[in-house]
Amino acid sequence: MAAQLGRKKCQCNAIVLCDDIAPEKVIAYEEQKQALLEEIRDMEATLKELKECRRNTPKHVELGELPPEDRFRQLGMKSKYFIDTVKMTAYRAETAMANILRRSMRHQDEARRLLRSLYATEADLLPDYDCSTLTVRLHQPANNCSAQTIEKLCRELNEARTKFPGTELRLVYDLVS
User: Fold this and answer.
1) Which domain holds residue 127?
2) What are the residue ranges of helices labelled H in the chain?
3) Residue 6: inside a domain, yes or no?
């Protein structure tokens, strides 16, 4: 709502009477400007009400205050074991990659930080069914040292010749600029 109000104010400020001051043009200008100003006043009032409503909304809700259908259910033990197994597998995979990175890093304690930034980086997925590959194109980081380290990680991962689960596509990692 605030963004819409800002755009409407910009739209109103953009209306300028720059032609000759003919009475019919002045009247049209005033009507258009007045309509936008009324719309802005209405939007400001609505925004004020919404902010007041948000201010009065409790920030925390006790579990007992929730309706029964909205309450959280505890995971069953089998579900918990499964989720714990996935978390452990992901942690072990990250540790293995961190160990690969540490071999070529000056500051070895920053390996996990580099991996986290790599996980947040955009990538292109390019399946090539003729060659049976799935290319993961990683975008270049801002730091050249990080780029060289990631390039070494990509080479090592490519040497593993890993197949993408559920397919016959071999994963190929590529760092592009």
Assistant:
1) 114-177
2) 2-14, 23-56, 77-102, 111-120, 144-159
3) yes
Cα angle for residues 135, 138, 144 (degrees, 5° grid)? 140
The model carries a pTM of 0.53
Encode pLDDT of 37-51 as tens digits: 898 999 999 999 999
- What is the structure's pLDDT at 69? 83
Mean pLDDT throughout 8-37? 80
**Residue 16: CB atoms within 10 Å:** 8
The answer to whether the CB of 140 falls within 8 A of the CB of 176 is yes
Judge contact between 36 and 75, C-beta under 8 A: no
- In angstroms, how far is CA 56 from the centroid of its own chain? 29
Number of domains, the chain: 2
Pairing of strands 170-176, 123-128: unpaired
Instruction: State how far the Cα of 121 lies from the Cα of 141, in Å rounded to an integer.
Output: 8
End-to-end CA, the chain: 39
